[in-house]
Amino acid sequence: YEQDHDRDSNVLEVFIRRLRQKLDPDETLKPIETVRGQGYRFHVPPSR
Predict the structure, then answer these.
(1) Which DSSP string corresponds to 3-44?
(2) Which residues pair with 42 in a beta bridge?
(3) Which of 1-10, 21-30, 31-40 shows the lowest per-residue confidence on average (mean pLDDT)?
(4) CA distances from 1 to 6, 9, 25, 28, 37 (A)
(5) pLDDT at 18
(6) Cα–Cα distance for residue pair 30/41, rounded to 1 Å
(7) Mean per-residue pLDDT for 6-32?
(8) How far apart are the first and last CA of the chain?
(9) Helix (H) or strand (E) holding 45
């Protein structure tokens, strides 16, 4: 059982990385923020 846990331990990180690449391919907006110890936050600053 421990091996299955280790194998799947980075599934969320990979998903978030791929989602970031699709939402912001040139990395200018950075809409998904990592909140240390909490998780992730979707934030888009208001346009000017």
Answers:
(1) HHHHHTTTHHHHHHHHHHHHH-TTSSS--EEEETTTEEEE--
(2) 32
(3) 1-10
(4) 9, 13, 37, 41, 25
(5) 98
(6) 11
(7) 91
(8) 51
(9) none
